[in-house]
User: What shape does this take?
Amino acid sequence: DIVMTQSPDSLALSLGERATINCKSSQSVLYSSNNKNYLAWYQQKPGQPPKLLIYWASTRDSGVPDRFSGSGSGTDFTLTISNLQAEDVAVYYCQQHYSTPTLTFGGGTKVEIK
Amino acid sequence: EVQLLESGGGVVRPGGSLRLSCAASGFTFDDYGMNWVRQAPGKGPEWVSGINWNGGTIGYADSVKGRFTISRDNAKNSLYLQMDSLRAEDTALYYCARARGIRYFDWLSHWGQGMLVTVSS
Assistant: This one.
């Protein structure tokens, strides 16, 4: 199974700062036939289910603010939150859907306001 | 509006059984793969099982293989998870989640609110 490793475990930033969350997969999730990375990002606020933010590593889901962006390819990926807002306090998870039959999630990164 | 409503959770003793249900509405159910994902208290999500649009392809996490059975009834717009031989480590909030398309093996675009399963003596 592909193992997804996120870093850091948590970060505390001031409002308006940039948050950078890393996700590393134990093997490539880039599918060569379509050049797409089979990686998604989710946001989970306390008491709520995860919410899809980004798919194909860099495509924002409908309604997701453009301060959220995803980048990376192969095994190394980054979720960036520019201009951090109070409502962005949450835990963020990456997930791969490359290696059947098992979907796997990263361990999560908690984002707090300093 | 897509809605997924889980039911059937509760407290059960180790070795016991429970059947979770997920009632789907707001979309054409048999156009989508479906999944169960669980989250233990204070932990990240763990994929449990998935089923494609017609039940023809099913997958399980190693941690539940042989104990849990996923199924769906497209006529009733419903997804199920039969959980047998339950263990303390199965204690978690269980989410029903819809995939992007007909395969379950994809990103998860919509999630229910979750149903708590507690396995305790």
Chain B touches chain A through 24 residues (CB under 8 Å). Chain B has a mean pLDDT of 97. The first strand of chain B starts at residue 3 and ends at 7.
